[in-house]
Write a structure and sequence with these properties.
The chain is α+β, with helices and mostly antiparallel strands. It contains 9 helices and 13 strands.
Length: 315
Amino acid sequence: MNLRLPIPILSTVVLFTALAGIRAPAALAVAPLGPEFDGVDVKNKLGQKVDTDIPFIDPDGKVVTLARYLDGERPVIFTLNFYRCTSICSAQLNELVKSLRSAGWAPGPEKFRIVTVSFDPTDSSEIAAGKQKTYREELVRQLAEEAEEELGEAEIRERAAAIDWTFLVARDKSIRAILDNVGYSVKYDAPSGQFAHSPVTYVLTPAGVINRYIWGITIPSRDLTFALMESSDGQLGSFGDKLLLSCFDYNRDHGGYEAFAWGFMRIGGGLVLLVLGTWLIIHWRRERRRSAQTSSAVGDDRVDPRSTSVSESRP
């Protein structure tokens, strides 16, 4: 018997397993799902540059390209979703907000940008505008809560205007072009009006090269921070962040960061050398002071033979 799951049920299963930290078993991703899910995939295109000439439509209804959002200075978080999604897409974007809250980072002029593109040709610029407003304001609220700030609605709207997170829509031709360009395949299910797709967060370099991707609905704050740091060519992150990053390695197959022993051993060895070197310097300086004091004392105790003979010859 060939079990075929409707898209909404599949989405719920994927959502539950992802939020629970469980990877869906291989059997769930192949034959039992039915032929309507064939071809839903994410191809590894790390190192490839995205097409910056594909036309999209911004929330104001203007035609734009990705070149507008690649300024050569800031990395870009790039997601593919559709705005009428009832499960996976909203969960993924909500998790992105939570991850940014944990990191304490907001997209803006000094850090990075976020661009979300809908692969549903029926999504309009009005819907994109509503999503953009909702997620910008929610990110401001989350960051304020993390910093224990109390903000009024007017201040939330004011800060949200500075959040550099743009939601775009596109026509069929542009959607096919960008999906093919980044290796992202989706499948439309007419009865449910939903798309079968995989939740993936891409991180692009300032030049638009796919440098990292993070697979799954949940987006670990550590992984997102590391991906942005590596994609910014060292421009983002504190010294401590960079030191910690040296203990982790990016897994190209799983799309995440994993700790590796050599990195921790290297830091441990460095700390040992630092402590040892500090001790040697302190010990050396202490010995120098002690030698100097000893030499001074010996000099004071010496008696000039000539002065002694003169004093003895006097009556």
